[in-house]
Amino acid sequence: MAAPVYQAPPMPTDAEIARDVRREKRGRIGGRGALYLAATAFALFAALPFAWMLLTVFKQNSDLYDPNLNPFLYNDPPTLQNIGYLFAQTEYATFIRNTLLVAVLVVVITLLAAVPAAYSLTRLAGRWGESLGIAIFLVYLVPPTLLFIPLSRVVADLGLRNSVWSLVVVYPSFTIPFCTWLLMGFFKSIPWDIEEQAMIDGYSRIGAIWRTVLPISIPGLLTVVVFSFALTMHEFVYALAFVTSSAQKTVSIGVTTELIRGDVYFWQSLMAAAALVAIPIALLYNAFLDRFIAGFTMGAVKG
Amino acid sequence: MTAGTPAVDLVEQRPSRYLLDRAGVLGPLLLLPTVVYIVALVGVPLVLAILYSLSDVTVGDQSLDFVGLRNFGDAIGNATFRQALRNTFVFTLVSQVAVLVLANILALVLSADFKGKRLVRFLVLLPWTTPIALGALGWLWTLDNVYSPIDFVLRRLGLLGIGSPLGQRWEGTNALWLAWPDLAQLTVLTVHVWRTLPLATVILLAGLTAIPQDVKDAANVDGAGFFRQLVWIRIPLLLPIMAVAVLYGIVFTFTDMTVVFIVTRGGPVDSTQVLASWAYFRGIEGGSLGQGAAIALFLFPVLVGVAAMMLRLARRTETV
């Protein structure tokens, strides 16, 4: 027997090439199809309660409360009455005012505490800064459900029982830790040289911070504003535990406790109340989400 | 102070400025407000929670009388508490396993390019970006006993109503999602998955974009297909970031009471009660602060465990 001789594999025929191309294409189209299918399924699942919410807002009673009608259609013409009812007949406007008051004051308190703290931890604390920063961030993860019972006593001792001011005092206890951590990320990315140069030019350290670090960190400060605002709007447990009179309630508890009365639900107005707040916050949050995640991943992801 | 200040003034002001310019003085000073806030409104309440749990304090009688571990004993002796404890763990574990699987798929979908991606991304993130109380309210209405649009679809599909292939329970005109204990539990689970899926997904997406391009290129050159790359490259490289995503998911579902409070109120017959909601009903609505504090403290060991794991992950990424 002769030694085996290397033989090149036969060249594929045109038909075979065409078949392979077809297979490849079919695979890719199948892939695209699966992609769109998955994207649609996830979007539907996520948006379902919101879509139903929005559809409900504009429905008339005769349409909404007839289980035989197709709920996905407007069997009677859409109406704006439910939104009018919300503002004219309920305390919704008060809830919004309370929420905005709390949110704005919490943002201010958070900035006043978190900016100096983050600067101190990144620039002045040396090697302890990072560890201390992580410790402060972990405080953010201590849940309201663990603290609300003793805090209800603290709030009462401060004379803030049943007042929207109790929330102004308590909310920074979770916005400050989170925002300090976010800002540390920003300050770390600013080179030392800039403020050093300002100090050599005769500014005090505070002056240098004011004139160099803060203007450069405006995106970071804006992130802090957005997140202390959003986290305040999201909070539910403390508000539920501390505030019981309707004139002092914020949106998240006012809508869910005051507008639901016994078995009589005004679902259209209720859904309008939820959607009018939920959607603007979602848009705002969405615009800054990447920075939020950068804070959450604690540098575990390096871009 | 402006740049035009005469030199003499500068010299006169030096001593005070030097003090504030010293890192050892300015550092703690700037940190002070934050530390005071955390100690006063997180540290003190945490200590108070432990004191309360060991005392007979109520809303009416605020004096702290030490009663030892009686509150914990009473809590464990209560059948609702045991149900709540079990629910808390089951809801957390099952929802986070589901989130881990779904988030990996969703992250793959969102890392591809397709038409309408921005809209899909916005919609998919909605459950996380809207206040949970309002999202839960949306679910309450979506799963209404009479007017649920899901029931309407099921009726049209023939799955609900007389002759339903799903069994006798589904023969009525409505599924009664929140009236059956098992369906109510499934609902709470689903809402938790719905709410934490976006967070896990965006964390994974951040991890995906951080996989170095040369690794992907090398795999492509070597002819590794989609699934090979998934198993040998993406998943191993993403493991630490998946751990981060799951840890946050655990914190947010384990300690949550808003979903249960709004969607089921712990019912029917306490079948969906969790530790946090039970602590609220006993401590705030029932007025027994000591009992409530003891119940809430059962959350603590798991939180400490999660914090420890986060620290390990953070340290690992520091040394890499």
TrEMBL record, chain A:
Superkingdom classification of source: Bacteria
Q: Does the keyword Aminoacyl-tRNA synthetase apply?
A: no
Q: Which InterPro entries match?
A: BP-dep_ABC_trans_perm (IPR050901), MetI-like (IPR000515), MetI-like_sf (IPR035906)
Q: Does the keyword Transport apply?
A: yes
For this UniProt record, the keywords arranged alphabetically read as follows:
Cell membrane, Membrane, Transmembrane, Transmembrane helix, Transport
Q: Indicate the principal place this protein occupies in or around the cell.
A: membrane
Instruction: State the Gene Ontology BP annotations.
Output: transmembrane transport
Q: CDD domains of this UniProt entry? A: TM_PBP2
Q: Taking every annotated instance into account, which residue ranges of this chain make up the domain ABC transmembrane type-1?
A: 96-289
Quote the cellular component terms of the Gene Ontology held in the record. Answer: plasma membrane
Classification via Pfam families: BPD_transp_1
What membrane topology term does the record carry?
A: Multi-pass membrane protein
TM ranges are: 33-55, 100-119, 131-152, 164-187, 208-231, 265-288
Tell where it localizes: Cell membrane
The UniProt entry's sequence similarity note says: Belongs to the binding-protein-dependent transport system permease family.
Which protein are we looking at? ABC transporter, permease protein 2 (Cluster 1, maltose/g3p/polyamine/iron)
Organism expressing this protein natively? uncultured Thermomicrobiales bacterium
